[in-house]
Description:
single chain; mainly alpha; 2 domains; 6 helices
Amino acid sequence: MGKWRRWNYIRQAKLNLVRFARMREEPDDVAKGLALGIFIGMTPTFGFQMLIAIFLAALLKENKLAAALGVWITNPLTAPFIYALEYESGRFLLGMERARLPQELTFSALGHLGMDVMLPLWFGSLIYGILCAGLTYAVTLRFIPLVKTWRIPRWPRPRKGRKP
């Protein structure tokens, strides 16, 4: 097997990045859509993020594909870390104690626990969402013109009469 075949995933990722950057949209439109997706991706709406992002992108007339791609900032691998960071930051900024499991499992105790978790989580997610969306917009706006100039080399082809 040729040495070049080992880099299939890296090459494919690079090709997809170039295809995304070469969309026939203005860099500003793509950057706004991606920033919107990142902002929605940072909120604790796991499972509904893509629907929310596409709906808001359509409503705001932004790039729907970029918004849908942006929500993937939270995926099954990153979500626990992102949500934990948002919860702890929100809890710290609001001056709240860490939530504890109730002694008895009643509906009112679970409702109170939900508020003790969701309030700092939402507060932290809004802060990180705004920061990450702004950063994403700025970086994407400058990165897209650069990526449009990239050239991806073709796969090396074995020559006739030679084994790869």
